[in-house]
Amino acid sequence: MTASPSFLGLPDRLTDGVRPCAVIFGAGYGSTYPGKDSSGYVLAADAIRLASQNDASLVEHWDFDLDGPLFDGKPACCVDAGDISTTMHDNAGNRARIEAKTRKVLESPAVPILLGGDCSVTIPFLSGFADYGPVWVLQVDAHIDWRDEVHGERYGYSSPMRRASEMPQVAGIVQVGLRSVGSARLADIEAARRYGSHFVTARGVHAQGVEAALGHIPEGARVVVTLDCDSLDPSIMPGVAARTPGGLTYTQAIDLITGLGKRARIAGFDLVEFYPPADIDGLSALTAARLLVNVIGTIVRQA
Questions:
Q1: What residues does each domain of the chain span?
Q2: Spacing of C-alpha 169 from chain mean position
Q3: DSSP label at residue 288
Q4: Among the residues of 108-245, which ranges form H helices?
Q5: Which residue, 92, 114, 216, 248, has fewest beta-carbon neighbours within 10 Å?
Q6: What is the pLDDT of residues 41-53, one digit of tens each?
Q7: How far apart are CA 94 and CA 85, in angstroms?
């Protein structure tokens, strides 16, 4: 079986003595609900890697999203460590492996960048920051993901922000891109508000710009970003399980990333809920790849 190319052709390690500023790794499975087949998400990380290949030879070229080359004239400092081993329905084992990998990257030290997987992978990703807090969480999503449990599972894709709110290392949560209707009941909304989560709807961003979200994050804070692909408008991100009109634009998403890098520090980033079987002409994979380029460029510039 032919190995998949790495993201942007990046190496899996740097030369001896050189520490990476960021480490990319994939995790296809998190915590699945009973009887739920989440195998389509396993294709996401490699689809994004493949979509990045056209730009692999252009890393040193000028990128107008970043106002300069990706690594800003510095030595390349990001690696792609490939995927960790996960198995559908091995929920506890998957969580343990994702958390352990996240901790290992943070120990190096570097910024972990996780390619999911559905957004259940966000829970162990955030758990990996237990000894590296406090951190704020910026969730970019159409939904608040605050269910306490679904079908007896407390760590599934409907619950990551509820679980995050229970983690002592999480200092606060900002949720941006919210719109339409999802699994949240009134009780979930009330629980999130009691916690103090800051809701910023997609309409709020369209009307007020990304400062509507960034203004809730303390200056200088360390922030873990979890970006659910359904936060973006389906015109540029059709490859999701629940397409909803009115989402964020590509420009709003990269302005949010860039603005966060200037106001605070990106301590971790995950991109989740890209579902390749629903993609159209590779558009979602391309959009996701460009978002990751902006994340890496922002991390480089905050180092």
A1: 7-302
A2: 18
A3: H
A4: 122-127, 160-165, 186-195, 202-208, 211-214
A5: 92
A6: 999 999 999 999 9
A7: 8
